[in-house]
Structures are given as structure tokens and as C-alpha cells.
Amino acid sequence: MTARERVLVSLEHRRPDKTPYHVDFTEPARARMAEFSGDPDFESRLGNCLVTLKSEPRGAWKEVLPGIWEDQFGVRWDRTIDRDIGNVCNRPITRENLDAYRFPDPDDPSRFENFARTLAAAPDRFRVSNLGFSLFERAWTLAGMETFLMAMASEKDYAHALLDRILDFNLRIIKKACAYPIDAMMFGDDWGQQRGLVMGPALWREFIKPRIALMYARVKSEGKRVFIHSCGKVDELFPELIECGLDAFNPFQPEVMDVREMKRRYGDRLSFFGGISTQKTLPYGTVGQVREEVRGLLDEVGRDGGYIAAPAHSIPRDAKPENIAAMLEVLQAQ
What we know:
TIM Barrel, 4-stranded antiparallel sheet, 13 strands
């Protein structure tokens, strides 16, 4: 099977010849692994099954101050501590300026200028268009985390109005992206922390669920699959996400949910993408423990398909290179 065929079969809840897998790195982890392997181009030989496309316009990021990067929405990110994402350090939207605030142009053709070339270069991989910071995260980065959470509780009209503008923007991006021969849309929207939902289930159902249902339905109407990346303990939402049309859940963190139990409960209706511990095993485990964990996931969670093996997040800086190598060895030796 090709990598793409493995993912498609797995998403149909049938076991492919090998469990598909995908491994991403943060910048520090990538640098450490390149040094450890003696190969600066090691990622090209991983055997990843997915290829990801981003719909950001040309010039979406610019460094406006040393270490401070501004995105297409005017949000500024301090990357002096976290070089991969950064920390938000301004607030472009307030209740007073929401109507006047101009969103970026979702129809800017430069957003998709690399799609055809990237897709042509990866004909045998599963093609995913990634729409990160897709709803809740986009709202709080624009309006401020504390401010937006308070608005969800006490200024509901403002919170709904902001989310509706984000939704309109997203639906236009989805339409454009799905015109290309992609296989899935991946939505990034962290709703959880280590113990549960950031905003609680009632507010999630009021503000988030109706809008993701519309986005997922738009993707499904184009014949594509729906993936979501949401960090944290959000497994209480799985039945409702399935109801909304979700096909695959990522990052499937073993630190906050029993991955084998989740597979038992929902594995006939939902696929999982992730599961390899980035908070415990990769940074603190032994090579033997890494091999045991990865083999166990392939055998148990991947038994009947419905699984894309992966670290539960982009590999962090503190992951031991020898543990990363052990994980890759098991994944590649299937």
C-alpha cells in the first residue's frame, strides 16, 4: 500500500498492511535530532504518511521588533521564549472596534499558490489542509484570553459576534481549499487543559459546537475528511464531535485520557491520531520503554484500523534523541 492508501483504509476502520504514522518536530527537537543522526535532512527519510498544506497568504508573518512576529491578523507573538509559536503580546480586537476591524482577505490567491506544487510532489501521501487557530483560539488571540472567556460568560453578544466573523472567514477558506484534491481538513483549536475543558461543556456547546458543525458539514459536502487537533482532556466531547461529523481526533494525549479505553468506546466511529507520550515517555523514559509503548499502541489501538500513530504533539525540546530514534525504529519496522 502507499502511505495515502494506509491512511484511507485506517479511516475506514480496517487494518492496513502497516499502521500509518506521522512525526513532527519543534525547532529545538529538530536541531537535536539532526545533530544526533548526523543528517540535517533526516525528516525527508522518516516515511511520514501525511503532507500538510497551510493556507496562509504570502507575507503572512513579519518580524516587527526583535523576536516579535506579527501574523496576518495583526496579532503579535513574542518568540524570544518559544520559537515555534510564541506568546501573544497585544490585543487587536476589542468590543468597541470589532465592527471596524478588517479581517485578512480569505480570497487572496497567494494563500493557495503552493497547493498544486505540494500536492504534485506528494502523490502517494495523504493530503491535509491545515486551518490552525480555527475558532476559540482565533478569538482569544485576537481579543485576549481572559477577556474572551469573560465575554463568553457575561458579554455573550460580543462573543457570538466575534465568533461569527471568524466562522465566515473560515467557511471561505474551506471552500477554496476543498477545491483542490486534498483528502482532509485539519482544524486546530485547543479547548482543553490537563483536567478538562477550558470553558466548560455548557459554554462549549453554546459557542463552539454550532459553528464547528457548520465547518465540518462544509468539508463533508466537498467529500473530504474532518480532523481536529485539540490539546487537553476533551474526551467528554467525543460523542458530540462524532455527531458533528469528525473523522479523526488528534493529539490523543495518553497523559490526560486512557487511549485504550477511548479506542474501546469510540473506535468504531472515530479514528485517533497521536497517542505516543511527549510529556513522559519520550523525554523521561528509557529506550526500552519507548519501544514497548509504541509497539503496544500499534498492536492494541491500531488492531482494527482507525489509528494514525504519532507523538501526542510535535516532539518537544526535552525529548531524548535516542528515544526518538527508538520510536522511529518501531514505526518504520512494521
